[in-house]
Amino acid sequence: MVCEAELYPPVKALLESKGYAVKAEVVGCDVVACKDDAPTVIVELKRAFSVDLILQGVDRLSVTDDVYLAVPAPDTATKRQNWRSRRRDYLKLCRMLGLGIMTVDVSRQSGRQVDVLLDPGPYTPRKNKRRQHRLMTEFKARTGDPNIGGVNRTKIVTAYRQDALRCAIVLADQKEMKVADIKLATGAPKASTILQKNYYGWFERTARGVYRLTSQGHEGLQHYAEILPTLADFTR
Questions:
Q1: Residue 3's pLDDT band (boundaries 50, 70, 90)?
Q2: For residue range 160-206, what is the model confidence (pLDDT) as tens digits?
Q3: Distance (Å, rounded) from C-alpha 22 to C-alpha 45?
Q4: What domain range is 16 assigned to?
Q5: Measured on CA atoms in the order 137, 139, 144, 150, is the torsion positive or negative?
C-alpha cells in the first residue's frame, strides 16, 4: 500500500510547477504552499479517503480557504471499482465543505502523477424543485405520523398506502363495490388508480369498474390494524 510520504514528492512537484514555494509538516499541516499574491494552499495526505481526512481538511479551513485532500489513485481493479462507485459522493461532500481533492498515482514513471479532481471553492447548492414538491406533497397528504424515524427493514406507511388502506376498509364489509362508490366513501382522489394498479395485491376486479377485497387485502388490514383508527374517518 502506498504510504503518505510517497504522495508528497508528486504533490510538491505539482505545486512548484505553479510557482509555489512548498514545505512539508508545517505546524501540523502535511503540505503548505505559498506564493505572492495568492492564498496559502494546504494539502492533507492520507493513504485512503476517510472521515479523519475530511475532519483534518475542515480544520485547516480555519487557516486558509484553499485546502486539498490528497489520496493515492486506486491501483487494483477492486479499488478502482470501489472508487468509481463512491467518487460522485466524495466529490459532492467535499464540494459542500469547500475542500479540494487530488489523487496521486506514484506508479506513473512519466506524465502527470497528480490529478486534481476538485478545486476548493464556496458551495451554493441548487435546490431541486421537483424533489421539494414531492417532499411537501407527501408530507401534506400523509395522515398523522404512522412511521418511526430511523427504522430499517420496515415498510414505510406512505400517503399512497394510507389511501389503499382506506379503500380496503370500505371493501372489507362489502362483497364488491364500484370504483365511484369507493372513491366517494374514502375521499381518496387516486382511488381508481390504486384499485387498477393493485400494487399491493389487495384488490380484484370482478367486473368493469367493480372491485372486491382479496385475502391479501384482509391480511393487509390485519397487519396495519394499529393505524386503521386514524384512517377510518377518512379525514386528513
A1: confident
A2: 999 999 999 999 989 999 999 999 999 898 999 999 999 999 999 99
A3: 14
A4: 4-118
A5: positive
- What pTM does this model have? 0.65
Paired residues of 69 in beta bridges: 44, 101
Alpha-carbon gap, residue 113 to 13, rounded angstroms: 9
| Boundary-marking domain end, from 60, 83, 118 | 118
Report the 3 state secondary structure along the chain.
CCCHHHHHHHHHHHHHHCCCEEEEEECCEEEEEECCCCCCEEEEECCCCCHHHHHHHHHHCCCCCEEEEEEECCCCHHHHHHHHHHHHHHHHHHHHHCCEEEEECCCCCCCCCEEEEECCCCCCCCCCHHHHHHHHHHHHHCCCCCCCCCCCCCCCCCHHHHHHHHHHHHHHCCCCEEHHHHHHHHCCCCHHHHHHHCCCCCEEEEECCEEEECHHHHHHHHHCCCCHHHHCCCCC
Residue with cell 494539502: 43
Shared domain check, 170 and 211: yes
Q: How many CA atoms lie within 13 A of 128 on its CB side?
A: 4
Same domain, 98 and 151: no
